[in-house]
Automatic annotation (TrEMBL):
Pathway: Cofactor biosynthesis; pyridoxine 5'-phosphate biosynthesis; pyridoxine 5'-phosphate from D-erythrose 4-phosphate: step 5/5
Entries under PANTHER family matching the protein: PYRIDOXINE 5'-PHOSPHATE SYNTHASE (PTHR30456)
UniProt family annotation: Belongs to the PNP synthase family.
Enzyme class: transferase
Protein name, per record: Pyridoxine 5'-phosphate synthase
Active-site residues, as the UniProt record annotates them: 43 (proton acceptor), 70 (proton acceptor), 190 (proton donor)
Top-level taxon in the UniProt lineage: Bacteria
Amino acid sequence: MAKLSVNINKIATIRNARGGNNPDLIKVALDCERFGAQGITVHPRPDERHIRYQDVLDLKNVVTTEFNIEGNPTPDFLELVKKVKPEQVTLVPDAPDAITSNAGWDTVKHQAFLKLTIKELKDLGMRVSIFVDPLAEMVEAAKETGTDRIELYTEAYAKNYHQNREAAIAPYKSVAMLAQKLGLGLNAGHDLDLDNLKYLHQNLPGLLEVSIGHALICDALYYGLENTIQLYLRQLDPTPTLP
Ligand SMILES: CC(=O)[C@@H](O)C(O)COP(=O)(O)O
Ligand SMILES: NCC(=O)COP(=O)(O)O
């Protein structure tokens, strides 16, 4: 069964809207864990529009499940993760002004940089994952970087799911099999939701973890956080349901 890591960026977005501490990010992270989340993901961005660097330091002291820090490996980001030493660092090549992450790494072009950065982080005991598009060439070159895992950027899958889910999953399935063959661990994330998650999970061999934020927090407005986390966990349950 793939692990569910709840991305709490959006909680920080709401908190920052009023400058106080409501909602309390630390409390939400602990509650997500209490409600069944198997990991907490944050993606501090250089403008600290949602998660602040201080949040990451504070979360480190309380998160007891897998702590996953995502971000562009700028000098500031690298200094932060080296201080915090989370279980997993996910490197994402996003531009500082991007509304959200919008592409995976070009693992061919950035091979040397990734190799160096990944080695540094792994030597300090962190597991490293890198964000990639579902392209065989990028996954093959990801293997050469020394990364432990790849995170498949699932925006295209989510976008095309309702039109033709078989076609939407096809490139992901194919690189998931390639990753398995290459001995790369497999994560996935971006725009996953209660509609598209189960099919992704059923079709990606070796899927280890999904990180979900935007849709999960939106769903929590209607169903409540505890129910919502349970609903997402149910999508990842390998037990076949009765017809
Ligand atoms: C890496 C990734 O897929 C992003 O989805 C992510 O972490 C979300 O970031 P924002 O919450 O800033 O859109
Ligand atoms: N790595 C993806 C992530 O953490 C959350 O993405 P989203 O669910 O907010 O699109």
